[in-house]
Amino acid sequence: HKRSMCLHTYARARATRHLQSACVSRLPIRALVRCQAAQVSPPGLQAEPWLGTPPQQQALTQLRARFQGNSEIPTEEDMVWYLRDRRFDIVEAEQKMRSMLRWRRDFTPEKISVDKVARE
């Protein structure tokens, strides 16, 4: 039989392992429908909000200290973004930022002009 369920409900049910019924757990992807709540990321995929709490400020200070003396120092806005993305794990945020800086250095996206992209 055909059933449909919004993507948000499906993702939440999958995340919490509440898909016990055989007909729902084998629900075909095409039967999933979008709902207004689907615009919100499922739990576990949302970035932590920046509230400026003392632990968040401390994480930012520690991350900033790890980039002292580097020729490529990310902006504070970038640091906050990566900290939020990595759930304020300083080591993971630093690794991801260094990877991004390496990519920017190797591919120099700031040198890409509209003319170069238009030809492709």
Class inferred from helices and paired strands: mainly alpha
Number of continuous helical runs: 6
| Average predicted local confidence, pLDDT | 75
For the biggest sheet, the summary is:
2 strands, parallel
Number of strands: 2
- Poorly predicted parts: 18-38
Q: SSE order, as H and E?
A: EHHEHHHH
- Oligomeric composition of the shown chains: single chain
Radius of gyration: 21 Å
How are the strands of the biggest sheet laid out side by side? 1-2
Strand content: under 5%
3D shape: globular
Instruction: State the end-to-end CA separation.
Output: 47 Å
Q: Give helix % range.
A: 40-55%
Could you describe the 3D structure shown?
The chain is mainly alpha-helical and 120 residues long. The protein is built from six helices and two strands, in the order βααβαααα. It has helices at 7-15, 22-25, 54-66, 76-85, 90-107, 114-119; strands at residues 5-6, 32-33. The chain has a two-stranded parallel sheet with strand order 1-2. Residues 18-38 have low confidence and may be disordered.
List the helices and strands and how they pair.
Blueprint: E1 5-6, H1 7-15, H2 22-25, E2 32-33, H3 54-66, H4 76-85, H5 90-107, H6 114-119
Parallel strand pairs: 1-2
Helix pairs in contact: 3-4, 3-5, 4-5
Structure characteristics:
mainly alpha, 6 helices, 50% helix
Q: Could you give a short description of this structure?
A:
The protein is mainly α.
